[in-house]
Amino acid sequence: MTEHRPTPPLRSQRWYEPDTIRAFAHRQRTQQMGLRREDFLGKPVIGIINTWSEMSACHIHLRDRAETVKRAVWAAGGYPVELPALSVGEVMVKPTTMLYRNFLAMETEELLRSHPIDGAVLLGGCDKSTPALLMGGLSMDIPMLFMPAGPMSNGQWRGQKSGAGTHTKKYWDQLRVGAITRHDWVELEGAMTRSIGTCNTMGTASTMTLIAEAIGFTLPGAASIPAADSGHVRMAAACGDRIVAMVREDLRPSRWLTRRHFDNGIATYMALGGSTNAAIHLIAMARRAGISLTLDDMAAMARRIPVLVNLFPSGNALMEDFFFAGGLPALHAKMRDFLDLDCAGIAGVPLREIIAEAACHDDDVIRNLANPVTPLDRGVTLAVLRGNLCPDGAVMKSSAADPRLARHVGPALVFEGPEDMAARIDDPALEVTADTVLVLRNGGPVGGPGMPEWGNLPIPKKLLTQGVKDMIRISDARMSGTHYGSCILHVAPEAAVGGPLALLRTGDRVALDVPEGRLDMQVPEDELARRRAAFVPTHRNYTRSLVALHQRHVTQAHEGCDYDFLQDATPVPEPGIF
Ligand code: FES
Ligand code: MG
Question: Which SUPFAM superfamilies does the entry link to (predicted)?
Answer without folding.
Answer: IlvD/EDD N-terminal domain-like, LeuD/IlvD-like
